[in-house]
Specification:
Blueprint: H1 3-11, H2 16-38, H3 56-67, H4 71-88, H5 92-101, H6 105-112, H7 118-143, H8 147-161, H9 172-197, H10 205-212
Helix pairs in contact: 2-5, 2-6, 2-9, 2-10, 3-4, 4-7, 4-9, 5-7, 7-9
Amino acid sequence: MGWAGVAAAQLENITNREAVSALKTALEKGSRAAVEQLGRENGFYGDARVKIPLPESLRRADRTLRRFGMASHADELVLTMNRAAEAAVPEAKQLFVDSVKKMTVQDAKGILTGGETAGTEYFRRTTSEQLRKRFLPIVQKSTEKVGLAQTYNQYAQQAAAFGLVKQEHANLDAYVTQKALDGLYFMVVEEEKKIRKDPVGAASSIIKKVFGALL
């Protein structure tokens, strides 16, 4: 019997209500921690795991900028991109809560037996498009103040038409928004793994009971 089969058998001794309650508590706890960690100054910029770099095509130009004494422009753009992500991430808090509230018993059982990142994948399925729509205008507001960002968009879109720049990198705001989402889900995964690995360390007794049965 595989891990999922063993986990499902162990869950037979736990009521549906307990399983759903534990999962909702765990996901709310983990997602809140992820948002709080990233949605502050240096949440992205100060963490190498999620720090947003220049787009690949601009990284090549970065060497030229520095050679001609324009390093400060490139550095300003990197800082601006990360500050934009930090400003956008708090928008995720309520969407995560709403997603958890809409979770069905079937969703909960599947997540509990679906592996160590199943909860995060549920969030990705149910929140990513809404988050993208909420993040984008916040990112745009931040990057519009930086001249190099506007110049990049102008030239990158032309270059993309000739296949010189990847389409997903043709607009800086869309690029930063995607990187902000990637960083957020990465952090939610880290929180989910922690709770699954050490349910006793989680404050809620219902988390300990349900996740403890899966160890």
